[in-house]
Amino acid sequence: SSALKTRDIEKVIFGGDILISEDGDQCTAGFWVRQDNFTYLVTAGHCALNNTHTPDGNVRFYHDTNPPYFVGEMTYYKYQEVDYGFILVDNPEILVIPNIKNVRNDTCRELFIIGTVDIDTINSHICIAGAFSYVSCGKVIAINTVVGIRGFGNFEGVIVTDIVSDIGDSGGPAFQFKDRFPRFVYLAGMLIAGDNNYSTIEPLNKILDDDMIPVRYNPILFDFDTPP
């Protein structure tokens, strides 16, 4: 199909892919959003810490491929009280596709973001996609709670899960699967911290401004199966 051929020649960044700063620090690509006429890739704001800044105060990020290619500059980020960063896409070769990498599943290697969801129930199923832990799922053990993260202070209104995550997974998307349809998912937030016991997720309402819209799967633009 013409859509698939386009993807072959253009650069694609999925949620769960590795991002690398100019100084070599690694984080995980989260999800795409649009605001006005601009497109941003969202990841964790603390990924910009201790990195070389441009004269404008921004941090340059690359897709960690061989060789890496430039994505854009993180033009705005926070890492205390809330944790998010917005990378303004500045590479016309990058094709914005709202998919999540799922490389450990041979039958469904991409997950399609079809909408968003608010996590409001303890014990509900939730998943993350980290660059190093890949897609991992577990249960919600706390919602709208306060978590203290060493060196960064307290974060209010976050979600705690029993998912194990690794260094470098920060910024990865958190999501729920659409019932009975394992390739379609609802975006729920972003991973901001984790260890061998728990992972902390920042919900979308703590990340996005009112006029920011997550990019979602559109079957008109891409030749994939239409979600039910």
Keywords:
228 residues; mainly beta; Thrombin, subunit H; 2 domains; eight-stranded antiparallel beta sheet; six-stranded antiparallel β-barrel; 2 helices; globular; disordered N terminus; disordered C terminus; Peptidase_S1_PA; Peptidase_S1_PA_chymotrypsin
Structure notes:
The protein has 228 residues and is mainly beta. It has two domains: 94 residues, Thrombin, subunit H (Beta Barrel); 105 residues, Trypsin-like serine proteases (Thrombin, subunit H). Helix content is 5%, strand content 49%. The strands form three sheets. The chain has an eight-stranded antiparallel beta sheet, with no helix packed on it. It has a six-stranded antiparallel barrel with strand order 12-13-14-17-16-15.
- Count all strands and give the number: 18
User: Shape from CA axes?
Assistant: globular
Question: Low-confidence parts, pLDDT < 50 over ≥5 residues?
Answer: 1-8, 224-228
Query: What is the share of helical residues?
Result: under 10%
> What is the N-to-C succession of helices and strands?
HEEEEEEEEEEEEEEEEEHE
Spatially, the strands of the biggest sheet line up as 3-2-6-7-8-5-4-18
Write the CATH fold name of the largest domain.
Answer: Thrombin, subunit H
Amount of beta strand: over 45%
Overall pLDDT, averaged? 90
Query: Which secondary-structure class do the elements indicate?
Result: mainly beta
Count of domain modules: 2
Going by CATH, the architecture of the largest domain would be Beta Barrel
Say which CATH homologous superfamily of the largest domain is assigned.
Trypsin-like serine proteases
Largest β-sheet summary = 8 strands, antiparallel
CATH class of the largest domain: Mainly Beta
Distance between the termini: 21 Å
What count of helical segments does DSSP give?
2
Kindly provide the radius of gyration, computed on alpha-carbon positions and rounded to a whole number of angstroms: 16 Å
Protein name: 10352_t:CDS:1
Organism: Cetraspora pellucida
